[in-house]
Amino acid sequence: MDGKPTPWIDTHCHLDAPEFDADRAAVLARARAAGVVMQVLPAVAAAHFDAVCALAHDHGLAYALGIHPLYVDRAEEADLDRLAEALARHRDDPRLVAVGEIGLDGFVPGLDWARQERFYTAQLQLARDAGLPVILHVRRSADALLKGLRRIAVSGGIAHAFNGSRVQAEAFIGLGFKLGFGGTLTFERALQIRRLAAELPATALVLETDAPDIPPQWLYRTAEQRAAGATHRNEPAELPHIGAVLAGLRGWSPEQTAAVTVANARAALPRLALL
Full-prediction pTM beyond 0.85? Predict the structure, then answer.
């Protein structure tokens, strides 16, 4: 044993978020000390494309470019052209590993579903044309996302923060996707997610934090606690602890869990293997 931590890949981290502005260097240092050797930084809006690209290059990470469904209502139609231009400009950049975060959100009330679908379809087409996988936002939208993927075939990717049914999980897997599991997995009441993580094929699983969001159980604070000033910011250094929960559910060692999920991340996002 050489004393080095087991290497992990965080397949979904919003390191460009303002929650990290005060201590981003320390967040990165803690992640590396924990063995998180790679992070994938998905953009959520056209205004963020340059930031995630710069962070990835400055810190040896990876990035994805896309327009998040929660940002579609404030996006301009021209932002799709900006995405097409950015994908073309960075097409030879090995750190550009996917188109994302894209998808559909059926949970937040008041969103324009037709506009979401239009942006989703357009971004699938851009991913197909670029030969890149996609990172999908899946929230009460799995069937609609699958319908789009059957119409516009892409080279797989990751269904981020997967929370659908077993049938939906198998449908994504059948289309070449891996399923992202993160902080929600750590809550004992998340019975369906924990069951899927325990029972789905080992080749289907990748790990993520979605930092600063979706904190694991040990970081969770109630609304009252947050109002009183308590913080529950998630960060990529938590990934090995989330991995330990997955290991317990699968009966794996932490080392096996890291090896399996890292291999799966590289299969889902092949450019990761080049970094």
Answer: yes
